[in-house]
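Side project, low priority. Logging it here so it doesn't get lost.
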Amino acid sequence: MNIERTGESVLRPVLATEQRPAKRRAVVCDRDEAARSAAAAILTDEGFDVVGRLADARDLTEMVADRRPDVVVLALDGVDGPEFEALSAICAQRIAPVVVMATGSAPELVTGARDAGALAYLTKPPTRADLLPAVEVTIARFAEMSRLVAEAAAANHRLHTRKLIDRAKGLLMTHRRMSEPEAFRWIQRTAMDRRTTSLAIAGQVVAELGESQQHRAAS
């Protein structure tokens, strides 16, 4: 008996390698249980995975460092105490962006939160219309800041590498009578032979030949 094939099913099986996009993660810290629950509910409804809900900010920095959320929503009562200490530590270490919620907008509190590194400031109680835009802007600003920091670090590393290799080339030209191209090729070839980087070889050259040069100058 012949079986007629009418084509593939429109219901394609989900492959094991296919994964849904990971949910963004959030941590909420507020002594006020009602406000804490309200903020967590708003974020959950928006698709966030609230991976931490704390009343005591003394454990906040450790939790954030461990769970690496995309955003932290932190209630702040003043410019001292465990809440402010956690805010300062999280922002100084650039672990995650922080949205601050406070019962008021006293200038010293706003200034303190800003200077500590908070990227958004809201007054309580949190509303969906206020919290969600603040969270989105905070996440975007933190991502941009992280990108700029990474680019600056990469540029500094390239500059340091170029300066060190140039110094190593100069020492090889002086002590080994190499031309500049020969010195550069020697650094590259030695790095390949030793399975390391040109920066590491340049550092060794500067440490060895530079030290000997200093000894001769001192004598």
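Brief comment: Helices lie at 33-45, 60-67, 82-92, 107-116, 128-175, 180-193, 198-218.
Revisit when time allows.
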